[in-house]
Amino acid sequence: MTPSVHEFLSLDLPPMLAGTLAALCCGLLGNFLVLRRLSLMGDAVAHSVLPGIVVAFLVAGTRASLPMFIGAAASGLVAAALIEVVRRYGRVETGAAMGVVFTVLFALGVLLIERAAARHVDLDADCVLHGQLETLFWFPPEGSTEFWRLSTLAALPRQVWALVLATCVTIVFVAAFFKELRLAAFDPALASSLGVGAGLMHYALMAMVAAAAVASFEAVGSILVIAMFVCPAATARLLTDRLLPQIIVSAVAAVLSGVGGYVLASFGPEWIGMSNAVNAAGMMTVVSGLLLVAAALFGPRHGLLARWRRQARLARSIAHEDMLGLLYRAEELRGPGTAVAPADIRRAIDAGGATRRALRAARRAGEIVHAPEGVRLADAGRTRARSLVRSHRLWETYLVNVMGLRPDHVHATAMDLEHMTDAAMATRLAERSGEGHDPHDRPIPPV
Amino acid sequence: MSVAPSTVEGWPMQGVTFDELWRTLTLQAGHNAAIVVLGATLLGVAGGVVGSFIVLRKRALLGDALSHAALPGIAGAFIAATLLGVQGRSLGVLLPGAAVGCVAGVLAVQAIVRWTRLRDDAAIAAVLSVFFGAGVVLLSVIQSMPTGDQGGLASFIYGQTAAMNARDAMLIGVAALGSIAAAALLFKEFRLACFDREFAAVQGWPVGAIDLAMTALLVVVTVIGLQAVGLLLIVALLIVPAAAARFWTERLRVMVPLSGALGGLSAYAGSCISALLTNAPAGAIIVLTAGAIFAAGMLFAPSRGVVAAVLRLASLRVRIAVDHALRAAHERAEGTGTPPPGRGIALALRVGGLARIADDRVELTPRGEERARRVVRAHRLWEQYLIEYADAAPSHVDVSADEVEHALPPALIAELEDALRRRWLRVTKGAPASPHTLGGEHQGGAT
Lengths: 447, 447
What we know:
Structural class of chain B: mainly alpha
Distance between the termini of chain B: 94 Å
Largest interface: A-B, 64 and 64 residues
Strand order of the largest sheet of chain A: 1-2
Strand order of the largest sheet of chain B: 1-2
Number of helices of chain B: 19
Number of helices of chain A: 19
Shape of chain A: elongated
Oligomer: heterodimer
Strand content of chain A: under 5%
Shape of chain B: elongated
Largest sheet of chain A: 2 strands, antiparallel
């Protein structure tokens, strides 16, 4: 084992591991919070466990895991119960109820910490917020043979072991109750009627959230906990539509945030010429936020760019069809082979750049040909244009004859509908409202 | 002879003399302290006033996202100022930075809600944690800067009135007065936006601009509250007084000033106590005071309070039990009967002057007789109605009538009579005959 590897194992691995495990265990549970619109519950619980931790510390006098865990879990449950009490008996809206309860509990925690900090130096509010990833060390032996011994692994910081335990319990919980959690997330009423007990699942989920928050709290701080409850799950929600892939993607996003955030925090500053590492928990949060932004922008189906591209493509295909329709109507007025100048087409269709792209696409498809005074329909284009104009006039006829609209009110609606009408639909329209002439006395082209 | 100053005994106030306490409360503890307390109080009033609209608009937790987003703004402004060679630690630099952070946070929340499929809860939680994480990273950068001294910035996280000087306090007070005045001027517009946005939009009010103004006031209060209350808890100054005021009144015209008064009171008490004690962060004390006021309102408010609700429920229960006892006595007089009432109800009957009870025999007074007839009449009219109009079986109507008989106002009874007359039923002055056998399983007997 080279010295640099050893340094990595002793200085970098424990915090990286702790951050990643915390991200993973909170991120998995976050899926159900985000789906049930309870994202802020993670926020509320993470803030509210502070007084419990401080009281546990003051009573037990140590920072051992067990008293802290009990204290935090107790105050997490008190917070969940108080929110419910304020909401139900005080008839306060949910958001405000959460706001009242968690700020008051957090204020209590801050006050207790400040009072206690005068006497106990090793407890301060900052480490609760930012965590203390940087204080986690491990001293594995230099030789690689003893490396995998149990005693070596046992020397990992206890925060890491607590997180390993919490992550395992979370994975088992999600796997064992996958069906129930899914039902409760998407259809609580159905879940109740099937005997799953949506209420019970809610409290089980809240208990797991509190436990995950507590286990992560000491190592990574409350801000990372809140971020991990929402960001990986939200990222996955933007990338997938099914629950199981969503859970897997959220786990990947959580691990990426943990590892990537740590690498950026401890090695990133050197790359840009700064000497000191920056706060790792904060950086993991930032990375999870960046992943969310990336998913929002570049997601294949729900991403902004994909949506814009779909819209642009739709606009082009509509401009394309409108242009063919325009040429067809020009032939009706002035006889076959009538050409229209591209500038006139652009002015008539008024779809910006979409028209130019549509002209190019139609030329490439052989639907229009260039003539000296502009473009005119080729045979392929005329066939397609005829069926479009047919759809348009069938719709106008239908809207007037069957729906009873006034003839001067139907053109715009027919313009929209003609692009979404296939042959079967056109046949049914013709059956309902008849062939012949449209309400403006123009002939409906035959098939 | 000089008298040693008497000290307040007990943990929190140890070492504070009554004299000091009195002088601080009456703003006589020096020019600087007085101005700081005044500024904080005005801030509390502004928080309460603006918060009422925010809570009613159901945007309570948007304030939380916004205040957390101030941290990267503050830290970024500090770094920029230091790099430019300006003294970073002054409100003139930090508050604009905070405002930029807040606005960026609001925009991020709105962008996520508008352009992705995520809901507002996930957007708020994500923005809150990611922005705060970025702020934590920037703070650690400041710490490692050669001129770095982030000591002063911590007061923006937890709030510290002691760190304020008279000029800061004046600035805060003036801005608070300005936002109170703006809220007063825009009262009508805000009311519309809170209660009936659609109506306001239809009436031609610029709903978007009104929301923008409300958010702008939210940003102002958050930014000026950072130093006194801290960015973790400033949201409490917006939510808690407003939610507390809501318990006492149904009218916005009362709620807004009341909320302002409660906010001012909390801030006044909190900043006085914090000025007297070391290790007592003002933000925490202000929020705990507001929390106590909230709890008092939730318990003891006359119409929406929990105690009042419990009393109302109890008195309703007694009234229903008395009604049932009276009906039982009346029916026994008709020849059927039920067992005599329990001791508590017997007492209620006697105290109400409705019956005399001797040897387990209930003897109705004229007043009791009158009320018993009314109850029996309502009961049987309802039974008739259910049988005639709802096609209920005669054996099924007793239970429903048991519940409804207490809640039938005279107007509804008149309507029932009319409805039954239309069905050609004879409606007598007294109670109609019961459509089923009386006395349940205990005693048979037709009427």
